[in-house]
Amino acid sequence: MTSSIPAPPIPHSLSRRSRLPQVGTTIFTVMSALAQQCGAINLGQGFPDFEPDGALLDAVTRALHAGHNQYPPMAGVPALREALADKIESLHGRRYDPGDEITITAGATQALLTAILAVVHPGDEVIVLTPAYDSYLPAIELAGGVARCVALDAQFQPDFDAIASALGPRTRAILVNSPHNPSGRVWSAADMRRLGELLAPTDVVLISDEVYEHMVFDTRDHCSAAREPLLAARSFVVSSFGKTYHATGWKVGMVAAARELSAEFRKVHQFNVFTVNTPMQWALAEYLRTHQRAYLDLPGFYQARRDRFRAGLAGTRLRLLPCEGTYFQCVDYAAVSDLPEADFCTWLTREIGVAAIPLSAFEPTPQEARRVARFCFAKREQTLDAALQRLSAL
After folding, report:
1. Residue 3 has what pLDDT?
2. In whole angstroms, what is the distance from residue 261 CA to residue 232 CA?
3. Which domain covers residue 194, as residue numbers?
4. What is the rounded distance in angstroms from the CA atom of residue 49 to the CA atom of residue 198?
5. Domain match, 206 and 148 both
6. 35, 168: one domain
7. Same domain, yes or no, for 200 and 269?
8. Which of 39, 53, 120, 284 would be 145's cystine partner, CB 3.0–4.6 Å?
9. Does 324 lie in the same domain as 206?
C-alpha cells in the first residue's frame, strides 16, 4: 500500500493596501544620506552638531541613579508639568493646570499627530498653510481628514483673506507654525489676533506648532497662541525640548491645551505611546527650574549664528530671504541656477559639498517657477565657516 505525499501549500501573496500610498522616504533622510555619501557638510536636516549643556546631561545621570527608570505617570512627570506651567505663565500670562492641561509627549511630531487624531474625524477638513512641515499632511490623512492647503503669500506671511475663504462647515482644525519652518518668518501679535477673530464664531480647533518658540530674533517677541485670549481656549500649543536644549535625539515635547481638549488628547496619547522616557523628564524638570537663562538666552545664541551665516552668504550670488526666527535660512538661488529646487539641492550637495533642503519638499504641489533652498545654521561656528568657504564658489 502506497501513501500519497500531500502537495506543499501554494504560498499566498498578501494583498497590501497602504495607509499612506503617496508617502516615500522623507527628503531629510534622503539629503542626509546623500551628504554622507558625498562627504558634504550637512546644512539640510535641522539638528545641531553640538552637544546639550553639560549640566543637563549631569541631571540625566542623577535621574538614572536616583531610580527614575520605570514608567512615569501617563501625562508626564508632575514636576516637569509644574515647571512648564510656571514657565508658560511667566512668558505668556496664561496659567495652565499642570495636572489636567499639560501633557509630555514623545517629541513634537507625536504631539502633532496625537492632536490631529484626537479631534479630526473622517471627512473633516484641516487647513494647512503651505509651505508646511512635512508631517502635517500624512497625519491628517491617517486621521481620515482632508487637508485644505492655503498658500502663504509671496513673503511667506499669512493670507487671511484666503484663510477666511477656506473656512467652511467641514473645517475642524487649522495648523499654524510660528516661528515658521521652512521660511523663518514669525507671526506678529496682530496676526494672532486676526486669526482669533476669524475663528471666534466657529468651532475650529487651532493646532499651534511652536517648537522654535525660543528662536526669535532682532528683539521680536514670540506671540504664542497661549497668549491670545481669542485662541487659547481652542488651541493645542506644541513645543519641543529637543529644539530648545539641543537634544533632538531625546524626542521629548509637550502640549498645553484647555482641559476639554487635553482630555481628548490624552485618550489618544495613552494608546499610541502611553508615556515618555522617565529619566529625561526628571532631568528636564530640574534644568527648567535651575537654568532659566538657557531658554532666555537662546535668541541671542542663535542670532549670532544667523548673523555669521548671513554675512558669509552675502558674498555669494545667493539672495538672502528674511529670517526672523527658527534656525533656518532660506535663499533664492535664481542668479546661480535655473534647476528646479530638488535638482539644485542635489547638485549643490554633489558639486559644492553643502547639503540643503528644497522648499518644494514642504508643499504638495511645488511652485515650478520658484528657486528657493533652505539651510540650517544650528551648527558650530567651524561648521558654518567651512560651509561658507565652499559656498563662496557660487
Report:
1. 62
2. 11
3. 54-290
4. 41
5. yes
6. no
7. yes
8. 120
9. no
Burial 338-372 (b: 16+ CB within 10 A, else e): eebbbebbbebbeebbbbbbbbbbbbeebeeebbb
Q: What is the pLDDT of residue 249?
A: 95
Q: In what order do the strands lie in the sheet with 235-240?
A: 102-105, 253-257, 235-240, 205-209, 171-177, 125-130, 146-151
Instruction: Out of 290, 322, 342, pick the residue that ends a domain.
Output: 290
277-304 average pLDDT score: 97
Cα 294 → chain centroid: 20
Cα dihedral across residues 66, 71, 73, 75: positive or negative:
positive
Alpha-carbon distance 318 to 388, whole Å? 12
C-alpha span between 55 and 275 (Å, rounded): 25
How many helices, marked H, and strands, marked E, lie in the chain? 15, 13
d(CA 319, CA 95): 43
**Residue in 309, 299, 294, 330 with CA at minimum distance from that of residue 380:** 309
Do 42 and 70 share a domain, yes or no? no
Q: What is the pLDDT of residues 95-130, one digit of tens each?
A: 999 999 999 999 999 999 999 999 999 999 999 999
292-304: average pLDDT: 97
Nine cell digits for residue 353: 559639498
Torsion of CA 81, 83, 85, 88, to 10 degrees: -130
pTM of the predicted structure, to 2 decimals: 0.95
Kindly state whether residue 79 falls inside one of the protein's structural domains. yes
What distance in Å separates the CA atoms of residue 387 and residue 355, rounded to the nearest whole number?
A: 9
